[in-house]
Design brief:
Blueprint (H helix, E strand, L loop, with lengths): L10 H11 L10 E2 L2 H12 L8 E5 L5 H9 L2 E5 L3 H10 L5 E4 L14 E5 L5 H14 L4 E7 H8 L9 H7 L2 E9 L4 E2 L6 E8 L10 H12 L6 H6 L3 H4 L6 H12 L18 H12 L1
Parallel strand pairs: 2-3, 2-5, 3-4, 5-6
Antiparallel strand pairs: 1-8, 6-9, 7-9
Helix pairs in contact: 8-12
């Protein structure tokens, strides 16, 4: 494999060598990136968020290392977490570099370094949601500068809430609390071996500090929006009246407290006027924060 300061090797050759060395027949969901264009695009997108040779990058699921080698060529320090023993053996034999710190672990359970500044990864599609939750959790205690991810295209559309109301849901609302999500580029199935049945997309997450959230519980926004979006066909009035006790415990509200809260919401004006007669996908993230601010008050 080409190391930093050498001529780059085409990713398809790296993947071919990896698959043949271990006699691997990719399983369902194992799709290896063989196109240099999305690799360069992912790194450029992260560079626009401050990625440079002083950065500490977390890479999740590096596989045979087609993205890792380009990050090392940039000069970044990498912490790579890979669950496959074969992939780790391959990386150790082909990409022995002081800038790479490799862990043969599950990215959802291992402790992430406090010093990471960026996350750049082609994350396994089957764990996209829990990985994003973990990224958001990590960011709140150890702020990141930026994230660049390759994910399934439909999932990317829900992350950025591309088409309203279809793509607006609890995923996009939760990410909006901490990030500005941007769709960078689509990636066709031909960029992978074997080719998946779906398109992929590169998405960036730029950390933001939203003034709307200064006195709002993120936990409350996530819990209430998830509950209501789980009942998409119902109007907000119906979903809120059926709130489970688990949500009431957040604010230590009794059932009678909750009825008074609903009365206050019914009479609210401004950007919440008439919202009780709408369905959850019709509400903006700002309206969700307004709802939770009034509930907490």
């Amino acid at each position: 494999m080409s190391l930093p300061n050498s001529e780059p090797e085409h990713p398809s050759r790296i993947v071919d060598r990896y698959l043949s060395r271990y006699n691997i027949e990719p399983n369902l969901g194992q799709n290896f990136l063989i196109d240099p264009f999305p690799i360069r695009t992912s790194i450029q997108a992260a560079s626009d968020l401050g990625l440079n040779n002083d950065s500490h990058v977390l890479e999740i699921g590096p596989g045979p290392g087609v993205l890792s080698v380009e990050l090392l060529r940039l000069g970044s320090k990498i912490t790579a977490i890979e669950i496959s023993q074969n992939a780790c053996d391959f990386l150790e034999s082909e990409l022995n570099h002081e800038g790479l710190n490799l862990f043969n672990e599950d990215a959802l359970s291992i402790q992430w370094p406090d010093t990471i500044t960026h996350v750049v990864a082609n994350i396994p599609y089957g764990i996209s949601s829990p990985i994003l939750e973990r990224i958001q959790e990590h960011h709140r205690s150890n702020p990141l500068m930026g994230i660049s991810l390759l994910v399934q295209r439909e999932f990317a559309h829900r992350m950025v809430m591309k088409s309203i109301p279809k793509d607006r849901g609890p995923l996009g609302i939760a990410l909006w609390l901490d990030f500005e999500c941007k769709l960078i580029s689509d990636v066709p199935p031909s960029s992978f071996r074997p080719q998946p049945d779906v398109y992929s997309s590169i998405v960036t997450l730029r950390p933001v500090s939203r003034i709307e959230l200064q006195d709002v519980s993120r936990k409350l926004v996530r819990r209430i929006s998830s509950w209501c979006f789980g009942r998409r066909r119902r109007k907000m009035r119906t979903s809120l009246r059926d709130i489970p006790r688990g949500i009431l415990k957040i604010g230590k509200w009794s059932s009678s407290d909750w009825l008074r809260i609903l009365d206050n919401l019914e009479n609210e004006g401004g950007n919440l006027r008439g919202f009780m007669d709408k369905r959850p996908e019709e509400l903006t993230p700002e309206q969700w924060t307004s709802i939770c601010r009034i509930i907490a008050r």
